[in-house]
Design a protein that fits this description.
This protein is α+β, with helices and mostly antiparallel strands. The chain is built from five helices and 15 strands. The chain has three domains: 110 residues, Beta Barrel (Elongation Factor Tu (Ef-tu), domain 3); 59 residues, Beta Barrel (OB fold (Dihydrolipoamide Acetyltransferase, E2P)), CATH 2.40.50; 103 residues. The chain is elongated and about 120 Å long. The protein starts with a helix and ends with a strand. The N terminus is likely disordered.
Length: 300
């Protein structure tokens, strides 16, 4: 009889959600076997074809966001960038030099003054200026106006050509950026997929880069006992067992509550926590793949 009762009790315990237990006052819930995992884990690809001429990255290298980790051959791109700068200088000079416009305007004023002076002379003394000369002077004046309009149009076109050259220089600058592998965030080089002087194609993964200064701690909460609103954005404590004994505490907040309830009537939650310095010279306390206890302070 005792054996039967013990067997039934074991079955009831096994039916409880894995690791989740609420405190007697229902203010906290303890998840003893939570998994520590990465938040950011990316494979940095080559964006342009060429020879991987420079590979600064090595496994274990710590880098700040924006640090250069490698470069694909950029010789031709640098030449195009240099040519684009020269062309832009010429275009800017044309687009800002108003000498031709000013000259055309003065020519118009001279031709107009000559024509009007001839008209005035004829008013004082009829026939003093022959009609043929008057027509010539008027044609010169009208031609000056047309030349000014043409010069104004060329000036506008020069402005548009400057825009084109600016775009070409921007394209060269952007290609240079694409030929440079940079750290997307503060993190660690985890793995190298290509070797220096190896030919790479766009999309080829060159290295794996992970964030270690902020990690995720995942666990499962009983849907029978805890409502999602009680844990969403709730404060948490993370207790980590250290090798050789002792524990370390970290704090954070629940940043994700799954909408799905599993077959065991529990749902997944995770918190994001700032990592701490490790012991014995190792830079990080928490490492992906280890387990930790998470204590959730339930929302009321």
């Amino acid at each position: 009889m005792c054996v039967t009762v013990l067997f039934i009790a074991n079955l009831m315990l096994a039916a409880q959600p894995a690791g989740a237990s609420a405190a007697p006052d229902n203010s906290v819930v303890r998840l003893p076997n939570c998994l520590v995992s990465l938040i950011d884990d990316v494979s940095l690809p080559a964006q342009e074809a060429g020879v991987l001429l420079e590979l600064i990255a090595k496994p274990g290298l710590q880098a700040k966001a924006g640090d250069v980790l490698g470069k694909v051959d950029e010789t031709e791109t640098l030449v195009r960038q240099k040519a684009a700068k020269f062309k832009l200088d010429v275009a800017v000079e044309k687009a800002t030099n108003t000498a031709q416009l000013e000259l055309s305007k003065k020519i118009i004023e001279v031709y107009k003054a000559e024509y009007e002076e001839s008209l005035a002379i004829n008013e004082r003394s009829a026939g003093a200026i022959p009609p043929t000369q008057l027509r010539k002077q008027r044609v010169y004046w009208e031609k000056g106006v047309a030349d000014y309009i043409a010069a104004e149009m060329e000036f506008k076109i020069a402005g548009l050509e400057r825009n084109v050259q600016e775009a070409e220089l921007e394209m060269a600058d952007n290609e240079l950026k694409q030929r440079t592998l940079v750290a997307p965030f503060d993190g660690v080089v985890e793995e190298i997929f290509c070797q220096q002087n190896e030919w790479v194609q766009p999309g080829d993964p060159v290295l794996r880069f992970v964030r270690m200064n902020r990690l995720r701690v995942e666990g499962f909460v009983s849907a029978r006992e805890i409502a999602p609103g009680q844990v969403d954005n709730a404060a948490v404590e993370i207790n980590v067992s250290l090798p050789g004994g002792g524990t370390e505490k970290l704090t954070g907040k629940i940043s994700f509550v799954s909408t799905k309830v599993g077959a065991n009537r529990d749902y997944r939650v995770w918190a994001e926590v700032d990592n701490l310095p490790g012991r014995g010279g190792y830079p990080w306390l928490l490492r992906p793949g280890v387990t930790a206890e998470m204590i959730i302070h339930l929302n009321r």
